[in-house]
Design a protein that fits this description.
alpha/beta; 4-stranded antiparallel sheet; Immunoglobulin-like
Length: 123
């Protein structure tokens, strides 16, 4: 009988620790920050590109934020309290980049796009 109680106590204790750990992780990483880099097909940075972020809903998408890239092609968008994002990029002299879907584990999750958003030159 005593062994049975111990087994269940340990199991529920471990589940409780996992839930607590996940909630602490979410609390520390939910600033709604999206960062990334925009580059040309040859890998060079595209400065001044417009990065538009939309919230994807069940039936449509709503514009939520916009940012410009810096000299290194990096962008930073803050305050995104959404779960599913669509990112599109426009830059002068380049073909518009089709919308890229970005799914998050939880609303407002901080996310750094690992691969650069690559654009092709127009014409």
């Amino acid at each position: 009988m005593r062994r049975w109680i111990n087994r269940y106590s340990i199991t529920f204790g471990l589940i409780g620790l996992a839930v607590l750990g996940w909630n602490l992780y979410v609390a520390a990483h939910r600033d709604g920050l999206l960062t990334g880099r925009v580059a040309a097909a040859d890998g060079s940075a595209i400065a001044g590109a417009t990065v538009k972020v939309r919230e994807r809903t069940m039936v449509s998408s709503e514009p939520r934020a916009e940012a410009k890239t810096d000299a290194q092609g990096r962008f930073r968008v803050e305050g995104l309290d959404y779960h599913h994002l669509l990112v599109e990029v426009e830059a002068q002299g380049f073909k518009p980049l089709p919308r890229q879907s970005v799914r998050l584990w939880f609303r407002g999750q901080n996310r750094a796009l690992e691969a650069p958003l690559t654009m092709e030159r127009a014409g």
